[in-house]
Design goal:
- Helix content is about 40%, strand content about 20%.
- The protein is α+β, with helices and mostly antiparallel strands and about 500 residues long.
- It has a seven-stranded mixed β-sheet with strand order 8-7-18-19-20-17-21. Strands 12-2-1-16-22 form a five-stranded parallel β-sheet.
- The protein is globular.
Length: about 500
């Protein structure tokens, strides 16, 4: 991306995670001047590339959807196209009912379209399978405007499917309680399919068939060296295009101010859409930056605080967003001690089975670059903690490693001790999407739109996955570029008339 000419205005982006950086990248390509302010000392948010015992690993999110284009397109735009790599293996298991069982095929986020693979896996009992078989005979599904995914699936297929399949799969995405998670927000395609077909299993079968007919290619992809390289590459592109990025720079206050030549900051009667107003951004150090527009790409609590004075309704809505905390425990072992035990890409753990870890990823098998970095080492990681199940996170790092090793011993017979460990705690890391979440987001955006040239984006609004965050950022950036161009055009028109 080359530096744009004919700048349309100065935009301050609050937040240096992937959403904020993607917004900055888009704004620069559209001709804006950009300053990114990140409160922490590191860019990337939940995308964090690191190492253990000299082996490159992700210490946060490790993959992104490949069949949704936004994140893949961004990676290619910042020079990472030749580093995109799908998993070397994607054969995951479920640790349930006393052993590792194959993840059944033909499901949509745990909802079976074909009961045969589910029956063969042993994940669901004979009684549970009989309950699933009865679902097409039930009265047509009534979903209304939204419904809790777990409650709805349980009402149609029984709790076993929810507890043994849907919960561990969705828990890996949101670290939440599936019985309270919005179906419309978390799995919108399944929501619409169930509404269209009236039967949940028929809807899942149709979606599975559509996926099978899609062009060949990986569902997920990573990046050689770690998905955490993506925000760093975007940041480099932003700087190369003339953008400024500051870390360790929390924002204390946002304050709308009148534009030069305008007594009240508004020469347009439209509500927030084309006002010729500016923003004063005040950092914690007391520095002030003047901006023509602002992108709030910060977590909900920060956005709520910064909007409290000028958009109290949006602030109140944002303050209601709950977050889940979790820890990732990364361990390196001598390969000879682990390789025969750890098969496939890893396993998920249904909470109903009462174990501590929620998942285990065999990184040296799943990602080629991890396994190749040191053939004598084997890297794996576990996760602990989810929404309202965070008591174990009060333990010290050694305690979390011990809990992980105890569960790994039960699951795969691992008795070896790691040669290196790393614990990364993601406190308040994942926003929760309860029933009505999309309506809440619509209310927030409606209130924010009343403000002059300010937009919000990030995981709290349109999805927690990387492509969803990038899409959210692009929408915010494109809307502001349109507003800034309109303001610039009106200014030029006034100049000609004068």
């Amino acid at each position: 991306m080359s530096a744009a000419k004919g700048r349309t205005g100065h935009v301050v982006v609050v937040g240096g995670g992937i959403s904020g950086l993607a917004a900055a990248h888009r704004l620069l390509s559209g001709g804006a001047r950009v300053t990114v302010l990140e409160a922490s000392g590191r860019l990337g948010g939940k995308l964090y590339a690191g190492e253990i015992a000299g082996v490159p690993v992700d210490l946060g999110a490790e993959s992104m959807l490949a069949r949704r284009p936004e994140a893949v397109d961004l990676a290619r735009a910042v020079g990472l196209g030749d580093r995109l790599q799908p998993p070397a293996t994607a054969t995951a298991s479920l640790w349930t009912r006393g052993g590792l069982r194959p993840m059944p095929k033909g499901h949509v986020m745990g909802v079976p379209g074909d009961p045969a693979p589910l029956a063969a896996s042993g994940v669901v009992s004979a009684e549970g399978l009989a309950r699933i078989a009865q679902e097409p005979e039930l009265p047509p599904a009534e979903l209304g405007e939204d419904v809790a995914l777990g409650e709805f699936v349980a009402s149609r297929l029984g709790r076993e499917v929810v507890d043994r399949l849907v919960e561990p799969l969705l828990g890996g995405v949101y670290a939440g309680d599936v019985y309270r998670t919005s179906m419309r927000a978390s799995v919108p395609t399944l929501f619409e399919a169930a509404r269209t077909h009236g039967s949940l299993t028929e809807g899942a079968r149709a979606l599975a068939a559509r996926a099978a007919a899609a062009p060949a290619g990986p569902v997920f992809t990573g990046i050689d060296g770690g998905i955490g390289r993506l925000p760093l590459a975007v940041a480099d592109a932003v700087r190369a295009a003339g953008g400024e990025i500051r870390t360790g720079e929390p924002v204390r206050e946002l304050r709308p101010t009148a534009a030069p030549g305008s007594a009240d900051g508004s020469d347009d009667p439209g509500e927030g859409q084309g006002r010729a107003a500016r923003w004063t951004v005040v950092t914690e150090r007391g520095e002030t930056l003047e901006a023509d527009a602002v992108v709030l790409a910060a977590p909900a609590p920060v956005a709520a605080r910064l909007l409290a004075a000028d958009s109290p309704a949006a602030s109140t809505e944002l303050a209601t967003v709950d977050y889940a905390s979790m820890a990732l425990i990364t361990m390196a072992f001598r390969r000879a001690d682990v390789a025969e035990l750890a098969q496939g890409s890893g396993f998920l753990v249904p909470p109903v089975d009462g174990h501590t870890i929620k998942a285990a990823t065999f990184s040296s098998r799943k990602w080629g670059w991890v396994g190749e970095a040191d053939p004598d080492l084997f890297v794996l990681r576990t996760s602990i903690g989810r929404f309202e199940d965070e008591a174990d996170l009060s333990r010290d790092d050694e305690g979390l490693v011990r809990l992980s090793l105890a569960d790994l011993g039960q699951a795969i017979g691992l008795a070896a001790r790691p040669v290196a460990t790393r614990v990364n705690r993601w406190v308040g890391g994942l926003p929760q999407y309860p029933v009505g979440h999309l309506d809440r987001v619509a209310r927030i955006r409606a209130e924010v739109a009343k403000l002059p040239a300010l937009r919000v984006c990030g995981a709290v609004y349109d999805g927690v996955g990387i492509p969803a965050c990038v899409a959210s950022a692009r929408t915010a950036a494109d809307e502001l570029l349109e507003l800034l161009a309109a303001t610039q055009a009106r200014g030029a028109g006034r100049g000609e008339r004068e």
